């Protein structure tokens, strides 16, 4: 289980390389990675003990989208940033 803070999430920038993200966030808890994943979007997920999640989407090993989900008193907060809304 991950322990990724909002501050860690904020360090991730669209266009960053996957290796750079892994230095900041560590190993993901879940992914859809296959041997062909360098050619299609790959989603890595970090899930914290409190139920919050970070999802990073990569295309050709670069960040194209990042999402931070936070549970706050039975309410879900979602922050989404993509290369389209920069």
Topology:
Layout: H1 6-11, H2 18-25, E1 30-31, E2 42-47, E3 53-59, E4 62-72, E5 75-82
Antiparallel strand pairs: 1-2, 2-3, 3-4, 4-5
Outline the structure in words:
There is one protein chain. The chain is α+β, with helices and mostly antiparallel strands and 86 residues long. 16% of the residues lie in helices and 40% in strands. It contains two helices and five strands. Strands 1-2-3-4-5 form a five-stranded antiparallel sheet, covered by helices on one side. The longest helix is centred in the N-terminal third of the chain and has 8 residues, at 18-25. The radius of gyration is 12 Å and the shape is globular. It starts with 5 loop residues before the first helix and ends with a strand.
Concise synopsis of the structure shown:
The protein is α+β, with helices and mostly antiparallel strands. It contains two helices and five strands; from the N terminus they run ααβββββ.
Give the helix level as a range of percent. Answer: 10-25%
Q: Tally of extended strands?
A: 5
List the total number of helices.
2
Shape: globular
Report how far the terminal alpha carbons are from each other.
30 Å
Strand order of the largest sheet: 1-2-3-4-5
What is the H/E order? HHEEEEE
Give me the Rg, rounded. 12 Å
- Poorly predicted regions: none
Question: What composes the largest sheet?
Answer: 5 strands, antiparallel
Average residue pLDDT: 83
Find the structural class using helix and strand composition.
Answer: alpha+beta
Strand content: 35-45%
């Amino acid at each position: 289980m991950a322990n990724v803070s909002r501050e860690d999430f904020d360090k991730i920038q669209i266009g960053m390389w996957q290796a750079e993200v892994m230095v900041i966030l560590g190993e993901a808890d879940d992914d859809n990675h296959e041997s062909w994943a360098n050619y299609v979007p790959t989603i890595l997920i970090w899930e914290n003990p409190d139920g919050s999640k970070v999802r990073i989407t990569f295309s050709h090993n670069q960040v194209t989208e990042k999402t931070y989900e936070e549970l706050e008193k039975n309410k879900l907060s979602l922050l989404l940033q993509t290369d389209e809304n920069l």
